[in-house]
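Before the break, one more example. Copy the sequence into your notebook; we will annotate it together after we see the structure.
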Amino acid sequence: MISDKVEMRELITLGGNGVLLRGTYHKAKGKVVNNANDSNKNIGVMFLNALFHPRAANADSAVYWADSFADRGYPSFRFDLPGLGDSYGDIPNDLLRFINDGGYAAITSYKLKELVHSFGLSGAVIFGHCAGATTAIYAASECKECKGLILMDPYFNLPKSLTSKLRPELVHWARRSKVGAVVRATYDRIREAPSALRKGALPANANFAFVSRWKKVVSNGLPILILKSPEPAALGSNRLRSGTFDYLGHIISFAVRSNQITIKTIEDTDHSFANRAGRVAVRQHTETWLGEYFPEANAGTPLLQNQGLQVQERNSVTLGAPAPAYVSTGE
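Here is what the structure looks like once it is written out:
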């Protein structure tokens, strides 16, 4: 059965600056925002790809979250970055290294500005999972239209250290399998232990450029929600075990106010957050956080307990700032 929420979604393309990003627009319930002159501007939520995953994320979890946030009055937008999902472009040979170096930062920053202008938003919160959180932080450091960050299992180390000299099939295994993930996490902890003994010193495999961007974002006062899985193998989001560098403790130390950074650990899930417990907890924590920091956008619409999770998107809208949006007849 097709969810009734399908009618509240549109396929869109951001076409400014000659770069086409394809995505899905989840309309805020009770209000369709598509006019830059709208006087009652909302905060939007912009979802980014997590490494190779398409914009729907694992088991369509991003679709569920975007529908939920839109129901609460926050128009939500899921985009595929160049080369990923439905967006044209070439994928770098080493995508993870490209992301860790901030390779998608410029295009994300530009497209966020285009999104805010085209839909008449007052700004947007960037939602990033794992490698998507890395891109979110890089982009937020250079985009004033970003008003906050939602980061799921962000990492501040360079996880490529284990796999740089391995055969491609072993690299794939280490990154995708649960056993490989545990091996990778154990290896990283062993590498980090000597540096962690030096008080206040970052480990040798820390992403120093990225940590510098984090400091800039935090110094700007942006509110930040960090959602952690209990899985120790999640890239860099360790459980702060003895001998492991406390990245979260380190990054929190740069906060400019006590309530700037909110951290929630979600039990009974894994790094994907895609099971029922993970989906519901991410939704609840995020909606609470959005309501606290951006209450003017909250429509106050109660959520249904069982929301449709199928992806069925139609109606294509193409946007190219500053040109107005138009609707095509294609599916």
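The chain has one domain: 4-158+207-328. The domain at 4-158+207-328 is CATH 3.40.50.1820 (Rossmann fold). Try to locate both features in your own notes.
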